Amino acid sequence: MWKGYCRSLGRWVTPVREVWRLCGKQQITPALQRKLCCTAAETGSFEKAARLAGEWGSEISDDTVRNCVVGLGAKAVGKPLKAPCAHRAGKKDSLVIMMDGWFARHRGGDWGKKRRQPSDERVRWCEIKSAVIFRIQDIAQIRQGRKVLIRKHVVATKADTDPVEFGRTVQREAVRMGLGAAAHAYVIMDGGVYLWNIFDDRFALRAAGLLDFYHASEHLHALAAEMFKEEAVRAHKWCKGLLHSLKHHSPKLLFKTLADLLAHPPENNPTAAKAIRETDAYFQRHKDHMRYAEFARNGIPIGSGAMESQCSQYQDRFKRRGQFWTNNAFEAFIEVVVRYQNGELASLWAA
Questions:
Q1: What does pTM read for this prediction?
Q2: Residues in CB range of 1: below 8 A, 6 or more apart
Q3: Engineered SS bond to 295: which of 108, 117, 154, 300, CB 3.0-4.6 Å?
Q4: CA 163 to each of CA 8, 97, 130, 184: distance values in angstroms, whole numbers, following the listed order
Q5: Contact at 8 Å (CB) between 178 and 88?
Q6: CA dist., res. 74 & res. 78, Å (int)
Q7: Which pLDDT tens digit goes with each residue over 269-308?
């Protein structure tokens, strides 16, 4: 490459490096960095990303791909985006927020130890708290009974993030997605205690909460299994009536049924009596979060399927066979993946 002394800049320059916007000893152009970030996010491993890069003309090692992607993500971790999202909710839009967690394998404190004891911690399973935020207007129906989410904003935090910090992160991203301007806002989740503590702390004054219908039905089916042991048909019929009323009318029949069971529990069945008390306590906690018929009439999802789908997508990339993450590499790479999925990958170079 040609190089020379530039009098106007007062320093030695390499023209091609100036054109390619390379700094210091940087050997990968921003354009190639972006391609590698997208490829690493879409493939199952850095090795596959390197192999695919070779197919479209860049012979590169998997270590180089990893170092490029993780290095960019690490620089961006401490600089969260603050600008409003391009596809944020407006005054006529409704915003939906869903939260949940999934698990990934991390290297434990005894990783790499040659002589391990049974009590050694080689692998550490870590919860990755995540969220999905989208506008109701971005739900499209592609065929009868089949809907698809055409645009969403995702959130994911580092391993074992404190619930308070996670709540703060989701609120910040929800504000970027137009929480303050939206006509209506809804938070739809399963029954996780820390999730609903986040709702009470950060969203209850602005959004309506809804307990995921599938998780509500799971609790009823579990209760029926205890009450009608070895009577599967009877248990199914009992649940079917209650769930139909809950979904299409109101929770009145459910609470009346539970109240009757509390007053007259099954005789000689202490296990069922305990299950009745626990189920009643669970639904009492969510008595204001089960307006399924009203939500459905207004086109609002009554399940957290979008969140479950997003967790599955994360796991397809971060929870594959043989993947054991270090804390720093995981945090940096998931930052890249999140910005890629949100259409904000260009911010990595701004950061």
A1: 0.91
A2: 14, 15, 16, 17
A3: 300
A4: 54, 16, 11, 25
A5: yes
A6: 8
A7: 889 999 999 999 999 999 999 999 999 999 999 999 999 9
